[in-house]
Design brief:
Blueprint lengths: L2 H13 L2 H8 L3 H15 L4 E3 L4 E3 L1 H28 L6 E5 L4 H15 L5 E5 L2 H9 L5 E4 L8 E16 L12 H5 L5 E2 L4 H9 L13 E2 L2 H9 L5 E4 L7 H4 L2 E5 L6 E9 L5 H13 L6 E2 L18
Parallel strand pairs: 3-4, 3-5, 7-8
Antiparallel strand pairs: 1-2, 5-11, 6-9, 6-10, 6-11, 6-12
Helix pairs in contact: 1-2, 1-4, 2-3, 5-11
Length: 319
């Protein structure tokens, strides 16, 4: 048994298809299938149940695959430790970012990060919080930018910045005549929300003092902020958006107004989350430094993030 056999084993478990697994391992299918059969013969138990249409793990195979994943994760950790010792900022950083943050933050930091650390290769994954946490625990990514605390003792988090929520509505909405929008005004609204699975949807619902949307707008659940704001521009209602999103083209193209809230605590905290065992803290520090150095004045650095406070952008309207 060698590491390559374990790599083939995990690939088949991931793909549930010998052809795709062989492609992922850059070998021919007969080579991969032959090695898996040799491994099964050596262990004396079938690892996979094969039919003409499907591949699935046997009960014994599930336990063996779980062990193989842990071994491969440790191999990856050994390689990462060696790379970090040689050059901490030359190894790839696999970073996950939630969809309500990635389109607005990453364009601000990618170019400065490349200019400051040209040897660093950033590999981005954009998914909702639960998916990113799963990938983080299974070593598929190294770190994640999230807006909720993971609540997992195996994971560490570093606060980066607090991002206020702004309210978005059309020019002809009655809210346009309201000077200050506080909690009472929000509770009287039927807000458009993102689909379940987005932490922003839960945060907005909590802020407005109700568990979920109801009434006529309950069926309007968008999968992205862009779609949500298109619905606002089309006159279907209003919504709350994180401050980094207020500079998008929808502001002028759709005739949407975005305004800060007169409501303390109406914000989310963005944090950098990683496994405590991650062996290259230098690359996380480099990312943190670039992010904090290129924030707009609509957000403020979180306490303990380092550096001075950035104005929160609490006055005026944005169009």
């Amino acid at each position: 048994m060698n590491l390559r056999d374990l790599q083939y084993l995990v690939a088949v478990a991931d793909e549930l298809h010998f052809g795709r697994a062989a492609d992922a391992c850059h070998v021919s299918q007969p080579t991969l299938s032959g090695q898996i059969r040799k491994l099964e013969e050596r262990l004396g138990v079938p690892i996979f149940e094969r039919t003409n249409r499907s591949v699935s793990a046997t009960p014994a195979g599930e336990d063996i695959i779980d062990c193989a994943r842990r071994v491969m994760a440790q191999v990856e950790r050994i390689e990462a430790i060696a790379n970090a010792r040689r050059d901490p900022l030359s190894a790839p950083l696999r970073l996950g970012v939630i969809p309500t943050l990635s389109p607005y933050l990453m364009p601000l930091v990618l170019r400065p990060l490349r200019e400051r650390h040209p040897g660093l290769k950033l590999v981005l994954t954009e998914e909702v919080t639960d998916s990113l946490l799963g990938r983080l625990r299974s070593h598929e990514i190294d770190a994640a930018l999230l807006a909720t605390s993971p609540g997992d003792p195996s994971l560490a988090e570093t606060p980066l910045f607090d991002e206020p929520f702004w309210i978005a509505h059309t020019l002809d909405d009655p809210l346009n005549e309201t000077e200050e929008i506080g909690v009472e005004a929000l509770r009287g609204l039927d807000l458009l929300l993102l689909a379940d699975g987005h932490c922003l949807s839960d945060q907005v619902a909590d802020l407005c003092g109700r568990p979920e949307a109801d009434g006529e707008l309950a069926d309007f659940r968008a999968s992205s902020l862009e779609t949500l704001l298109q619905l606002v521009g089309a006159g279907f209602g209003c919504t709350l958006v994180p401050a980094l999103a207020i500079g998008g083209p929808w502001m002028t193209d759709l005739g949407v107004v975005a305004r800060p809230l007169d409501l303390p605590g109406a914000s989310r905290q963005v944090r950098l989350v990683h496994r405590r065992s991650f062996p290259n803290p230098h690359v996380l520090g480099a990312l943190r430094e670039v992010v904090l150095g290129h924030l707009p004045n609509t957000v403020r650095k979180a306490p303990g993030a380092g550096g001075g406070e950035v104005p929160a952008g609490k006055s005026g309207r944005s169009r």
